[in-house]
């Protein structure tokens, strides 16, 4: 299995309309708006997840604008439903962490914002198995119709976990 990331410079939902199916409809709309805005602003850290050179998902990171640059957010990490359960998302998560560390060496933590919905328990379990932990209580935000909870992990811990499980290469 070959998983890699490709830098995204155009709207992935236009180039790959099937990506609208990565998240439930209400979350997909928020993802589409957020990513389109980031592309328009020419933000870096947006990637297409490739599986054997086939576009299967989106991932990346964004600056949480901490004064010391130590915390970054995970950007709409997800793969198409038909590619789930194959380890693709897991590998892409580790590759994303390595890219973040390479491009932002001062980074300490990676934060994922998880919605509190009827499928949240699956998302929490997914991230907890890598060592992500709750960083705050769920809170209301102006960009989502439901509460959001921040989960985080030290980037070095995530990379070490991936190396120890032989999920990512050591070079």
Describe it for me?
This protein is an alpha+beta fold and 171 residues long. The chain is 32% helix and 25% strand. It is built from five helices and eight strands. Strands 1, 2, 3, 4, 5, 6, 7 and 8 form an eight-stranded mixed beta sheet that branches. A hairpin with a 2-residue loop joins strand 2 and strand 3. Helix 3 packs across helix 5. The longest helix is centred in the N-terminal third of the chain and has 16 residues. The protein is globular, with a radius of gyration of 15 Å. The two termini are 18 Å apart. The mean pLDDT is 89.
Give a quick precis of the structure:
By secondary structure, the protein is an alpha+beta fold.
Give the strand content.
Answer: 25-35%
Helix content: 25-40%
Question: Which structural category do the helix and sheet elements fall into?
Answer: alpha+beta
Q: Any idea what the radius of gyration is? A: 15 Å
Total helices: the number is: 5
> CA-to-CA gap between the ends?
18 Å
The string of secondary-structure elements, in order, is: EHHEEEEHEHEEH
Average pLDDT, all residues: 89
Q: Major sheet: size, sense and barrel closure?
A: 8 strands, mixed
Low-confidence segments: none
Q: Count the strands?
A: 8
Q: What characteristic shape results from the CA principal axes? A: globular
